[in-house]
Amino acid sequence: MGWLVSEENFDKSKIELFGSKFCIGNGNFGYRGTLEEYGKEQLCALTLSEIYDDNGCGWREPVNMPNPFHINLSVGGGNISVLGSNVAKHEQSLDIKHGIHSRNTTFVTGSGSRVSVSSERFASMAAPELIAEKYMLSADSDIDIVMNAGPDMDVWDINGPHFNVIRSESSGGNTDNHFLIETIEKKYQVSMCVSYLVQTGCDYKQDGNQYTIHLTKDDSFLLTTYAVITKGIHCADPFAESRAKCECFAGKGFDQVLKEHEAVIEKRWRSYDIEIEGDPYAQLAVRYSIYLLLIAAPFHTEGIAIPARGLSGQVYKGAMFWDAEIYMLQMFLFEEPEIAKNLVMYRVKHLKEALEKAAEFGYEGAFYPWESQETGKDGCTLYNLTDIFTGRKMRTYFRDKQIHISPDVVFGLYKYMEITGDYSILLQGGTEVILECARFLYSYSYFKKSRNRYELLDVTGADEYHERVNNNAYTNYMAKMALKCAVDTRAYMEKNHKAEWDSIVKKLKFEDDLAHIDEMHRLIYTPAPGKDGVIEQFDGYFKEEDLSVRELYSRRIKENEYLGSLCGLAVNTQILKQADVILMMSLLPDQFTKEEKRANWDYYEKRTEHGSSLSTCIYALLAAEIDEKTYAYDYMMKAATIDLVGNYKLYLGDLYIGGTHPAANGGTWMVTVLGFGGLRVNADGVSFVPDLPDSWNSMSYHFACRGYEADCKLTKTTMTLHLTGQKKSGFLFNIGGKTYELTDDSITVNY
Ligand code: IFM
Is-contact 575 465, C-beta < 8 A? Predict the structure, then answer.
């Protein structure tokens, strides 16, 4: 129960949505939830992580590989496909517990015979190079079928083509298809080796990739496909390696490689699963959100984080955004800190590019990119959108004015240390990142003498509808947090690692900046709540036109028109694209009273369009804190079901932005564990303020924190904790104002 996502009947209009919804992956690549008969028009994609390309025709994007599972069926010269044939029955499903995609379809042929097609595929979590599929044909009467099975080299790309095939081999018998591609721009090499193995009692003839099958009603035809994808960035000879591995996996057989994959994914679920009793739909939606993060997480590398659309395709350039630090990181921090470290290290590794970006705009320090790929460079252009009325490029300020990305990166590092208790990251490049981000903020700031304060002018905050504003609340508060982190890092390093600290300061030539950072931290302006408790989102925000989202929508000429940028409808109004002040209050919860949180939630909720998938989870998170349980639940479900129901914008202007939504998926985890579960870790220690939604009888989850691991079960009135890791003493936690110590035995506390 609660592990199966499934859809019955074929509906052409759902092909795009289901491609994302039924996606599988393993961090090394993603494979969209498409059917074997689909081609590039149906958005088939095997999207690689880490390998990006620019062929000069558009923007850099991840490389899609040929589809190894492409199959064409025909009977009497006519194609059998959901796209054209008579479909009697069709079901597509995803077993998220095991990461297995299935389809079962029955076709009625012209002669009235019923031909059934079923398949099962998985992207191995045990062997990240492997994706395998079992495809079965059966019929209710004897029938001749022609099947073509071979990699579809006609690849779906937004800005392709991205590679040349530089070597290929295929041999007869059980056809092997083996090739090496090289990308256009950086000459990355990737090899794919595909083995097709047949098992059947039927008569069949094979000619290369074509099988002529005499299917009888008593015998089925089974084709097992093993596709191995090896990247030159990970091995010296990807061509040889893909063949060797493919032979090895095919030799083991489908059941065995599946078993090995299942063992890994089941182990992951032992850490990541959240069990909810009493609300089956929420159960499925929460698990599905976790699943979508697990299939895109960089388990195998520090070279990449999680892209804004996971590995569900090339949308958003396959780029990483602040979404990773602010929305996705916490789940990994509390469940598998080693993987969280990979996400954080991606930023540490690309400090150089952040320094270069700051210099490009005339600043010092590290200005992290709005969107970046494997090179760590900002992939965003200054004209990042197209006006749908004129077809002209629009000047956007995502790249040059969203300076909050640097403090967001510091937030990720700080959370890493706070939750894991592991400060060694400061000696692995973390200190340099924190100091350089602080230096950038100082360099960007304006010291207003008349008010004796530092201000951040001409910025774009989290709310992207209001670009180039002064003193955006989210930006200024996050900047103060980052500056404090720099001040604290100095204290920590001077006390614990004096020699390393001295050498870092010398290396960065940071001597003079130490005093600046200290002063800016004390004097940076952070807009205070007004008499009514509401914080103004930026200087002058309250003077903008105040209207409802409905009224704003009524002014649109086209449904997809962008509401921000230079003359978007929201620009001179109080309508926000996404949580801004509310996000800041959620991330920095100890800095605001409950009354202030409520006042701001009440004010901004009405004025938020949720035009970004990053928004609803944050409204849910803060609603949970201010005891607005119904709102918290409803907003959480919006975030949790976004990829199940496809309730998201498909276009920004004329730009296709479909795919999965990992930020909303991570936000769902945050609302569930941090919001309803009330888990909080800060300088005072670990505490819980649980309050489950009315429909939930209980919620159980596992978490790791500061070297401890524990299972937690919450009912409406009790919390039971049990340590599961090596450390069996000294775990202190607070609930209802009382501190408890957890040792070997479990504790049940009434709350
Ligand atoms: O990072 C976000 C941004 O905040 C809103 N637009 C989409 C981006 C990628 O998810």
Answer: yes
- Give per-residue pLDDT as tens, 499-555: 999 999 999 999 999 999 999 999 999 999 999 999 999 999 999 999 999 999 999
Residue 231 pairs in a beta bridge with: 190
Cβ–Cβ < 8 Å for 166, 188: no
Instruction: Give the pLDDT mean for 607-634.
Output: 97
- Name the DSSP letter for residue 589: G
Is 614 close to ligand 1, i.e. is its CB under 6 Å away? yes
Closest CA to 125 of 344, 339, 343: 339
Nearest-angstrom CA–CA distance, 678 and 81: 50
- Ligand 1 site, residue 402, Cβ cutoff 6 A: no
Which amino acid is it at 427? L
Q: Is 663 in the pocket of ligand 1 (CB under 6 A)?
A: yes
- Name, in order, each residue with C-beta under 8 angstroms of 146's C-beta and a sequence gap of 6 or more: 73, 74, 75, 210, 211, 212, 213
Active site residue 464: yes
- Are the beta carbons of 223 and 42 closer than 8 angstroms? no
Look at residues 517, 676, 682 and name the one whose alpha carbon lies nearest to residue 591. 682
What is the separation, in whole angstroms, between the first and last Cα of the chain? Answer: 29
**Residue closest by Cα to atom 3 of ligand 1:** 612
Taking the C-alpha atoms of residue 428 and residue 425, their distance in angstroms, rounded to an integer, is: 5
- Residue 83's CB is within 10 A of a number of other CB atoms, namely 16
- Whose tokens are 């590794």? That residue is 349
Contacts of residue 503, defined as CB under 8 A and 6 or more positions apart, other chains included, come to none
Does the beta carbon of 37 lie inside 6 Å of ligand 1?
A: no
pLDDT score of 650: 84
Which phi and psi angles does 230 have, rounded to 5°?
-120, 140
| Position 330, amino acid | Q
CB-count burial class (<10 Å; 0-12, 13-18, 19+) for 470: middle
**Quick check: 150 pLDDT over 50?**
yes
CA 405 to chain centre: 17
Q: Which residue matches tokens 């309250």?
A: 542
Apex 583 CA angle, 581 and 587, nearest 5: 120
Q: What are phi and psi of 710, to 5 degrees?
A: -145, 155
pLDDT value of position 172: 53
- Quote the Cα angle for 395-397-399, to 5°: 115
Residue type, 593: T
Report CA(345)–ligand 1 centroid distance (Å).
21
- pTM of the full structure: 0.97
Out of 464, 467, 536, 628, pick the active-site residue.
464
Interhelix angle 430-444/405-420, rounded to 10 degrees, is 150
Pocket of ligand 1 contains residue 315 by CB under 6 Å: no
pLDDT(133) > 80: yes
Round to whole Å and give the CA distance between 374 and 371.
11
CA-based nearest residue to 609, from 640, 579, 589, 639: 579
741 burial level (CB within 10 Å; 0-12, 13-18, 19+): exposed
455 alpha carbon – ligand 1 mean position (Å): 25
Burial 309-337 (b: 16+ CB within 10 A, else e): bbbbbbbbbbbbbbbbbbbbbbbbbbbbb
Contact assessment for residue 682 and residue 307, using Cβ atoms and an 8 Å cutoff = no
CA 260 – ligand 1 centroid, Å: 36
Tokens matching residue 60: 């850099």
CB 436 within 8 A of CB 510: no
370 C-alpha to ligand 1 centroid (Å): 9
Q: Which helix (H) or strand (E) holds 207?
A: strand 203-207
Q: Which two tokens stand for residue 13?
A: 């209009």
Distances (CA, A) of 721 to 430, 544, 733, 744: 33, 49, 10, 10
HEC readout, 709-738: EEEEEEECCEEEEEECCCCCCCEEEEECCE
Tokens of 131: 């994706």
